[in-house]
Amino acid sequence: MITSFHPPQRTLMGPGPSDVHPRVLSAMARPTIGHLDPAFIDMMDEIKKLLQYALRTDNPLTMPISAPGSAGMEACFVNLVEPGDKVIVCQNGVFGGRMKENVERFGGEALMVQDTWGTPVSIEKVRALMEAHDGIKALAFVHAETSTGVRSDAQALCRLARDYGCLTIVDAVTSLGGIELEVDQWGIDAIYSGTQKCLSAPPGISPVSFSERALEKASNRRTRVPSWFLDTNLVMGYWGGGQKRAYHHTAPVNALYGLHEALVMLQEEGIEHAWKRHALHHEALKAGLETLGLSFTVTADARLPQLNSVQVPEGVDEAQIRARLLENYNLEIGAGLGELAGKVWRIGLMGSSCTRRHVMLCIDALENTLSEAGVSLPSGAAAAAADVYYSAEA
């Protein structure tokens, strides 16, 4: 007979999900009420305001999609791309490739800007492609590429798109809550994220936000939006605001309790402080990892503090190290994807997984596990290096 499932207690330091704070788990255990209950509608309005705070936007259409980040991505593309539309898609990792898939599946023409994995999107390549083609409808790029740990200059890319009169579609799945992100100030038109990274809520919800320019495009399409569930013209009836809501779908009530609590915690901490916290613990982790002789895939000027792509030492079985970390320390770190598969570890410092305790556990566990695998390392030196950094910043 199958009995209740009881998961092991893990420490999550991969590319996501991150550790979920007990406050968020407790919120999700509260009594379920109806998705049109007046009390739930009040909470929906609060979630919108909290997401606007986190994204630094006043966009009225700022809401959580009742599905994971991939659905948030699809919501942006399915509403803004029509058959024949030319869209510049920037790819410097796995997730730019998924943007290309969305453009093509909705009948658009993807004009690709390809950059080496682990390097930022080239502003000059984008400019050259815009110069070479008339009628570009949108520029799509990943702000924080989860597969490589690189940050692209979203502000400069959005400014360029405005100069050429096209919309921007931005993947902020890993950036929201972890690094500076200014939707209104930078002029981002459509943006999507996930809850399981720096917000430290469970996976399964995707925050999105659309500018007035984006909504104008979506509401004046030549063709009908090919997705009923993700059509902004329909879902606005449910998330639009006020007490009178049109039934659209049954929202994941308890999951939204969790997102609400995670966003309340972010508000309590302060978004700018959260950015600083991620930078602080990244630098301490960096000090420890470099003492272990490990190097980063991404140069310091473009490196994400919340997603550290670390080169696997020559002769080390990266999968075996990850398996031993999980078995001996209940510590999860991530493997490489695509071109970087087997070559890197991806170590996350996201949300509730971005603390001094997490940094020290990761450094000690890696040192011990690499030593057991035959790598010669100075005992305790990595932890000492991280301690020195923390002491200097205290």
Automatic annotation (TrEMBL):
PROSITE patterns: AA_TRANSFER_CLASS_5 (PS00595)
Domain Aminotransferase class V: 32-336
Cofactor: pyridoxal 5'-phosphate
GO MF annotation terms: transaminase activity
Domain of life: Bacteria
Keyword Ubl conjugation listed: no
This protein's record includes keyword Transferase: yes
Swiss-Prot/TrEMBL keywords: Aminotransferase, Pyridoxal phosphate, Transferase
Similarity comment: family membership: Belongs to the class-V pyridoxal-phosphate-dependent aminotransferase family.
Protein name in the entry: Alanine--glyoxylate aminotransferase family protein
Species in which this protein is naturally found: Marinobacterium alkalitolerans
Upper classification of the organism: Bacteria, Pseudomonadati, Pseudomonadota, Gammaproteobacteria, Oceanospirillales
